[in-house]
Amino acid sequence: MAEDNEDPREVPWHPRFAREVVGHVGEAARFREAVASGRPHHAWLITGPRGIGKATLAYKLAGEVLSLANAAQTPRWIAARSHPDLFVLERGLNDSKPRRLRQEIVVDDARRMTEFFARTSGGGGWRIAIVDSADELNTEAANALLKLVEEPPDKALILLLSHRPGRLLRTLKSRCRRLPVSPLAEADVLTVLNQLPVPAQGDPAALAAAARLSGGSPGRALELRDSLGAKAFDAFLRAKSLTAGVKMAVAGHFAQRQAAVQDFETFADLVLDWLAREAASAPEAPRSAALARAHQEIAASRGVVAGYNLDRRTAALNALTAIEDALKAT
Predict the structure, then answer these.
(1) How, if at all, do strands 127-131 and 86-89 pair?
(2) What global pTM score does this model have?
């Protein structure tokens, strides 16, 4: 079937379709100032947590530069993935049936990027490549990209996106100008979500909760929007105390055993992130140590639950009890 060969990233809210970038004003200004100087650095490493708009920013900045040569056609060409002076390096589809996304960016993809820069600019201006994301380059692909970054052609710009720059080749990072991007404010996350052409936005309260729990990431909020795990965690946060009734109500979100697998993973992610923040900010040493122990206990239990496919409702009750005990520490 045709849909078996479709790229799952091809959705109406793909970053290249965005008409505007919400937030990231200072970062965009730094890049524009460099381009306006006439001699911008050839390689930019755009860093920050996943889902906060790095790709949207990269496509927007690339579009602005390419519009210097052809303002009329550039937006349409970028949306259609047909701009002759824009190359996007990302994971390709494998050769299986049905075809699936590869786990990494392979060297053949990186070599096609080198071939792209070897050609003459179609519009007589800049040629731009977006690497989305550099974290997914395998060793050979990373080395091929490094050679290009070390010896860039004229009028070339490379925008590398990275969620975890600490894992990239040190030599690659050293040849890039860093452009760190911060998570969005909660209000900006909601603005992005309300602008996305997604099917049925759903309950406004659920959307607001997803924005609140997203850590400034619209991408994460979109994942959390319909998650029972996110709803369970929000109920936990809103509780004034962890009474038996509250714990049963929160754990009740995982009553459907088979359907609860992914929801419990989401709940565990949110709980562990919350515990880490609380432990780091706790002024009293006993309380901080107790929260850290609860974090360790829940993280270990999570692995056991997944490995043996144990009941997620019971696992949630145990996690909440561990948190309750830690909060009593003085």
Answers:
(1) parallel
(2) 0.86
- Tens of pLDDT, residue by residue over 41-53, are 999 999 999 999 9
291 burial via Cβ count (<10 Å: 0-12, 13-18, 19+): buried
Give the three-state DSSP class for 1.
coil
Distance from CA of residue 43 to its chain's centroid?
Answer: 21
Buried b (16+ CB within 10 A) or exposed e, 194-232: eebeeeeeeeeebbbbbbbbbbbbbbbbbbbbebbbbbb
Structure token pair of residue 233: 């965690």
What is the separation of C-alpha 272 from the centre of its chain, rounded to a whole number of angstroms?
18
If you write DSSP's letter for every residue of 95-140 in order, what string do you get?
SSSS--B-SSB-HHHHHHHHHHHHSPPSSSS-EEEEETTGGGB-HH
Closest C-alpha among 283, 280, 294 to residue 242:
294
CA neighbor of 294 nearest in space, from 262, 328, 263, 258: 328
Report yes or no: 65 and 199 within 8 Å, Cβ to Cβ: no
Q: Are 135 and 28 in contact (CB under 8 A)?
A: no
pLDDT of residue 200 exceeding 70, the answer is no
Query: 245: Cβ–Cβ under 8 A, 6 or more apart, which residues?
Result: none
Question: Is the pLDDT confidence value at 271 over 90?
Answer: yes
Distance between CA atoms of residues 307 and 299, nearest Å: 13
> Which one, of 237, 234, 217, 236, lies nearest residue 226 by Cα?
234
Torsions phi, psi for 156 (to 5 deg): -120, 140
Query: What value does the mean pLDDT of the chain take?
Result: 93
